Amino acid sequence: MAPQEARTIRLNVRPERRRRGSREDVDLARLAKALAHPARVAILRLLLTRGDCICGDIVDRLPWAQATVSQHLKVLKEAGWIQGEIDGPRVCYCAQPEAGRKFTALLKELTPGQERSGT
């Protein structure tokens, strides 16, 4: 075979092994991954305590730069932990309590003796 010829390798993977997991497993992983950094936990805790905040208020209360806080807010928002609402030139963020309830319910399913709720 010439060095520049491309070879196609086909893997015989059963369709059931290609699945990413159940919807509940994917949701739990997404929510947990967003909390996998202490800064994001601190931001979420602040929003739960204060109700809502603009990014500048969060930066004033926590020891991270504005760019760092913005990046963590983006991750939390994409995972569904928080919501951002445009307020003129600023964005006002607030926690989404439903995400916490869902996370708790999904996590309980990993506890021995708990039945799957179909959340």
UniProtKB/TrEMBL annotation:
The species this protein was found in: Eiseniibacteriota bacterium
Alphabetized CDD domains for the sequence: HTH_ARSR
Stored Gene3D superfamilies: Winged helix-like DNA-binding domain superfamily/Winged helix DNA-binding domain
Protein's recorded name: Winged helix-turn-helix transcriptional regulator
Alphabetical list of PANTHER family matching this protein: REGULATORY PROTEIN ARSR, TRANSCRIPTIONAL REGULATOR, ARSR FAMILY
UniProt keyword terms in alphabetical order: DNA-binding, Transcription, Transcription regulation
Keyword Zinc: no
HTH arsR-type domain location: 20-118
Gene Ontology molecular-function annotations: DNA binding; DNA-binding transcription factor activity
Species lineage: Bacteria, Candidatus Eiseniibacteriota
SUPFAM superfamilies per record: Winged helix' DNA-binding domain (SSF46785)
Any Pfam family hit: HTH_20
PROSITE patterns: HTH_ARSR_2 (PS50987)
The keyword Transcription regulation belongs to this UniProt entry's keyword annotation: yes
